[in-house]
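Supplementary material to the annual report.
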Amino acid sequence: MKTTPHLDVRNLTMAYGDTVIQENLTFEVQHGEVFVIMGGSGCGKSTLLRHLVGLMHPADGTILVDGIDLWKASMEERNRIISHSGVLYQSGALWSSLTLAENIELPLAEYTELTPKQIDEVISYKLSLVGLAGFEDYYPSEISGGMQKRAGLARAMALDPDILFFDEPSAGLDPVSARLLDDLILELRDSLDTTVVIVSHELASIFTVGDNSIFLDPDQKTIIASGPPKQLLDSCKDERVRKFLTRAA
Amino acid sequence: MPNEMLDKYRLTASADQLCLQFAGDWRFQDGLPEAEPLLQQLRSHPAGRLSFDSQNLGKWDTGLMTFLVQLLAECSERKIPVDQSGLPGGVQKLLSLAHAVPERQGARRKVLGMPILTKIGNITIEMHRNWSDLLYFIGQIFFGLLNLLRGRARFRYSDLLYQIECAGPMALAIITLISTLVGMILAFVGAVQLRLFGAQIFIADLVGLGMAREMGAMMTAIIMAGRTGAAYAAQLGTMQVNEEIDAFKTMGISPIEFLVLPRLLALSLTMPLLCLYADFMGIFGGAVVSATMLDISFFQYYQQVQSAVPLKHFIIGVIKACIFGVLVATAGCFRGMQCGRSASAVGFAATKAVVTSIVLIIVADAIVTIACQILGV
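Predicted assembly:
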């Protein structure tokens, strides 16, 4: 068993200029677990995700990926870590001037030694995993929002990353696609031992896939609950968490 | 193919059984064996059951999956029954997920080169659509203006003032620089020739006439096409991408009145003023060159300009500038409103706006020049 946690966040403070979003966040994400970041709108969930993937510099505290501090690592080490992680952005963030196939091809061509034919096979397999078989030659603007999101997922998974970050994965998906996405997340975890970090509001999906979670509060500006989502539902005393998890008004 | 690749799988055939044994790591970062040799082997064997043995399989990822997907596709095409039970559980589940959503009928596209006639046809249809769109757009602007005159347009004067500020005062610096330099260049080119005849003083006629009638309006229009026309196309195009324009429409607010009219009016109002300013800056640039190179004093130059360039030339220049202003604003807004729904479409819109503006400016200039010739002004 690997002992170092995959992500180790210590005393993280996030801020935009002087505005503190969240402070003193400390949590660990273990290898091969599905970790859910919860909280009401505007509490800084997406900002936390941007910190975890190295897009934003922490105002204070450290973030260790496999024991390595992203902001102190050398350029090569940083690139290596980043190429082993995949991110699905809220609206897909597909490159609009490239077809779906080219979107997925780009990381494969950059980072692997596969032949063009093998790359094509990987692309069609990845697209079929997200239910988009046959859409290789479409431009992102030609498909629906939900399909763009799924294509974004295929691109995030292109390199079989060790860790996948999802920003609101099921928003904009129909219930069936959302269900298939949950299955896919669990399958990635079980078969490929992928660590998955999800920012989500979707209760059904949180309870289905979440192994562990934290709950952020916008007023207290820190973590007010943590643990497996089902356990939080059963035993958390905090009013705000209960309301969130039971959809109580 | 390196030898180690050959060791990754082995196909053993017994009476009516084919068994595929996997060995070692199957990760695509390390490179993958080609599927084709195996598929050929498969074709050469009589159809039987295919089963798998993954006892010696090491680490695996998408590399193994894509290999299997190709293999299974071949098997189902040749109706070879496949027994997946020998595969690791995760592989079986991922395979079933990949087939959970069948390919949508008719979704796949054939990317084929188009015959030349089809291309010409498509371009013609596209051009026709472009022109009818443009006419429709001009019609909408016309009705928007009518509404504005009747005081019924949804139109914010603060927007108009803001657009005037953007298109006017904020453009002064670049207009100053460019038109002064153009005036200096005109003077410089003329000076070399005129000095041969001892006719240096006519440099003032050359620069004055050139700037007032032609270059002042033309240079201003081209600067504004690149600066403001492109900005209009990019702004409206981005609003189109973000569905902001749709939001106006569904709220019953005409985007033509709310977005296009302020820009159109702003540019039509500022362009003549900028043009006059450019005229004087150009003439001033000429004066600097005359004074330094030809020893013509500022006063002499001024008097010569005054006698050689009557007011009507300035008026013709300003009329041209008005026309150019309308053309640049229309082209910019039209391309912006026509924009597609992606980041690259915004880029195209801005490029097209500038190209369209410049073509229209030159064509309009030619028409006005011919008209002046015929009218004798």
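The domain at 3-98 of chain B is CATH 3.30.750.24 (Transcription Regulator spoIIAA).
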